[in-house]
Design goal:
Blueprint lengths: L7 H31 L3 H25 L3 H15 L2 H15 L7 H21 L4 E2 L5 E2 L6 H17 L1 H7 L2 H14 L2 H10 L2 H12 L7 H19 L2 H6 L21
Antiparallel strand pairs: 1-2
Helix pairs in contact: 1-2, 1-6, 2-3, 2-4, 2-5, 2-6, 4-5, 4-6, 4-10, 8-11
Length: about 270
């Protein structure tokens, strides 16, 4: 199992580069999946798309680690290295993205996590099924052609959605020096203790609603998640929007930018 560099700065830059390369490869794999889908090669299309989804999950794992405080990140290092080599775990990170942006509201946090694990396991199993012939302990032959058109189309659609939801991260890691400079400023201005207290005190269903709303770009994250650096950037952006030129650039479909803690929530609403 490959180890991350011991130097925190070198390790940090490598994780950013891994995220960028993973998302780039995800797009290449999606292109291949779409090409063989058009050629009605359903098993191969599914497998290429499933690999692309894993690459999105790999990038999500990287971004999760980068968002951690440096001390916590060091503690997480062994877990990262283990997760990085697990097809199942990378698929789970990607399916978590899909769960957060899905229009269907999960019954609970636990239900969503259970669904994520189940979906990831099936993605991984069918991915291998689409690549080669196998057999069971009872003598049944398993062939790629058991993977059908609907499976392939659903997986291509899922990867497309996951990449769309990852577009902000993709743009950020495309300029690693700028991103890391911002990340360091954000971390230095964050009150992680207060954030931890907020998360612990917020009911699971309400926290899930907040996360889903942010993931679907319907609102900004609560200010505790933003930190002063990001909040200042948002304020500056809103100031530009308030100018005549900025108002002209707005459309009636622009998302409500009210921070989540200042907006009413109905956790039962879809």
């Amino acid at each position: 199992m490959a180890k991350l560099p011991l130097d925190p700065g070198v390790m940090e830059r490598m994780v950013v580069d891994i995220a960028a390369a993973s998302l780039k490869n995800a797009r290449a794999l999606l292109t291949s999946a779409q090409a063989v889908l058009d050629a009605q090669q359903w098993p191969t299309s599914f497998s290429f798309a499933a690999l692309a989804l894993e690459e999105v999950g790999k990038a999500s794992l990287c971004m999760t680690m980068l968002a951690m405080p440096p001390a916590v990140r060091e503690e997480f290092r062994p877990d990262f290295e283990k997760m990085f080599t697990s097809h199942q775990t990378k698929a789970e990170f990607a399916h978590l993205i899909l769960g957060l942006i899905d229009e269907k509201v999960p019954a609970s946090v636990q239900q969503m996590l259970d669904d994520v694990v189940t979906a990831a396991r099936r993605t991984n199993d069918v991915k291998f099924r689409g690549l080669y012939v196998d057999y069971t302990s009872t003598g049944d032959l398993l062939q790629p052609d058991t993977v059908g058109e609907s499976d392939a189309r659903l997986m291509v659609t899922a990867v497309t959605a996951a990449l769309a939801a990852s577009s902000f991260a993709e743009s950020a890691v495309a300029e690693p020096d700028v991103f890391l400079d911002f990340l360091h400023q954000w971390q230095s201005a964050m009150d992680f203790d207060a954030l931890g207290t907020h998360i612990a005190a917020t009911p699971e269903d309400e926290l899930l609603t907040q996360l889903r709303t942010v993931a679907q770009e319907d609102a900004l994250a609560p200010s505790l998640f933003q930190g002063t650096v990001f909040a200042d950037l948002v304020t500056a952006a809103d100031t530009v929007v308030l100018t005549p030129a900025g108002r002209n650039a707005q459309t009636s479909t622009e998302h409500d930018r009210t921070p989540l803690e200042d907006r009413p929530f109905d956790t039962a609403a879809p």
